[in-house]
Amino acid sequence: MPTISVRRDLLFKAIGKEYTDEEFEEVCFEFGLELDEVTSEKEQVSREQGDKKAEGLSEAVVFKIEVPANRYDLLCLEGLSRGLLVFHQKLMSPRYSRIEPKNGPRQKLIIDKSTASVRPYAVAAVLRNITLSQETYNSFIDLQDKLHQNIGRRRDLVAIGTHDLDTVTGPFTYEARLPSDITFCPLNESKEMTAVELMEHYKTDSHLRHYLGIIEDEPLYPVISDSQGVVLSMPPIINGDHSKLRLETRNIFIESTAKDLNKAKITLDTIVAMFSVYCEEAFTVEAADVVQPDGTVITYPELAYRHEIVDVEDVNNKVGVKLTAEKMATVLTKMCLASEVIDAGKRLSVEVPPTRSDVIHPCDIVEDVAIAYGYNNITMTIPKTNTIAHEFELNKLSDHLRHEIAYAGFTEVFTFALCSRDDISTKLNHDLESLKPVHIANPKTLEFQVARTSLLPGILKTISCNRKMPLPIKVFEISDAVFRDENMDVGARNCRRLCAVYYNRTPGFEVIHGLLDRFMQVLGATWNSSDGYRLEASEDATFFPGRCADVIYRGSSIGRLGVLHPDIIDKFGLSLPCAAIEVNVEPFL
């Protein structure tokens, strides 16, 4: 869940009441939040970077509060304090409205068809006659950053640009150009750069370098400019310095470009709803027109209110309470969900405001009833359904085998379910695609590119990291491997496998063979019978030629054992011979 940092004195001033740390922790719990830490800017920097770096920083108390990932309206001081005031019934939930400009036509953002290949969507709005202080300005910037990281997926899906409207001239154009054709002075810089120079310049920037890859390899870069050719921003990287916000700014033009239109609309609605409180006409937002590539015009922000119908008895049953329709309507009002009793008290019509984009189904309203009523106030009852729990059979079998293999002198290890492509292919002398691995779309590191199709690489890496331990090293793992399977609803399936490795100065094939015989004996499988097991010589590039065999159980191969090929041993940084076995345990269920 995202964590927001708010100064304690500013928050208490906004909600009009002071609490002890323990009292405020309870307030957060009642509202469905969690007070994660009480600290200060100086204490935090001192802890992370040392006392020298913390010199001169503020010692004002800061609350770090964990917020549900989909409650975008609580990601800033304004939204949090407003939500708490409504929850404690000290404030009526405000009504957000879109208004027309008092002087002149609406501001217009024209989307060019060239943006279709990079970031095809854009929305816009205007906050008119706004008053900013240093604290509200900081909160405004912080909310943008939180939205970028959260719903914007680190600016990949949504990027926000905010501009001093009095420094630019509409209509505005959103288009994609060649990087060499884009020239402007980036935010807080003193000279103009081309987009090519800008991308190179920010490769060493600790903050912006993380976003360069979003458009770096694109032939065209998105850019927003005004009617005079002044560049406002190059999303999702940086805004222009010409239109940057200042404390004196009175009118703010907000644009949001995106790959996901719905997320862009939620982002715009959230940011204008939170900060329209500082407009001369509070909670009003000036409309802006966005001209689509096909010429159609859409007006933003939507700030749409919608209604959900919920059954009172159904909500009571799911929460475990007995509330009247009127009481339930009052409870929901505490969560900024204005409700009206209909159908003679059998149902409620719940109005969902534009700030509650997390409410997408009646079950979300049920959750809000539980939060507002108070989880601690719900009487615990024994469920009316009688069930007898029992262990999942596959896990029961796995635990049984773990004990028996441990009794045989092997040490259990747990390795990562993700690994590199080379771990399961090149290092084991196998072709990657023949293994049918599940690939990770956007791996964070080269070590986590695919889901493992074998437990062997993880065990060999574990031995490599512990090769200085006394010999012999006898380790095993019972866990899942993952394979692509078009017949499964998720396109992949898990397979429970057992893998054991013996590492010593001699190969120890007889040790691994003995382990096989032992766990087969435990499972009641007899040697060389029609419903038992046997070994058949086979060839596998992972194993030494002539030292590999298939394990046949009830006529089907369930795995292999043998002495590992010297090349495999070398690729994992080992120097002594290994014997290994890996089998599928699911046929024994």
Radius of gyration: 31 Å
The N- to C-terminal Cα distance equals 39 Å
Percentage of residues in strands? 25-35%
Fraction of helical residues: 25-40%
Number of strands: 29
Described by the principal axes of the CA atoms, the overall outline is globular
Note the total helix count: 16
- Structural class, from secondary structure content? alpha+beta
- Poorly predicted parts: none
> Which sequence of strands runs across the widest sheet?
13-12-11-8-5-16-17
Mean pLDDT: 91
Keywords:
589 residues, alpha+beta
What would your notes on this structure say?
The chain is an alpha+beta fold. It contains 16 helices and 29 strands. The protein is globular.
Summarize this entry quickly.
The protein is of the alpha+beta class and 589 residues long. Helices cover 27% and strands 27% of the residues. The protein is globular.
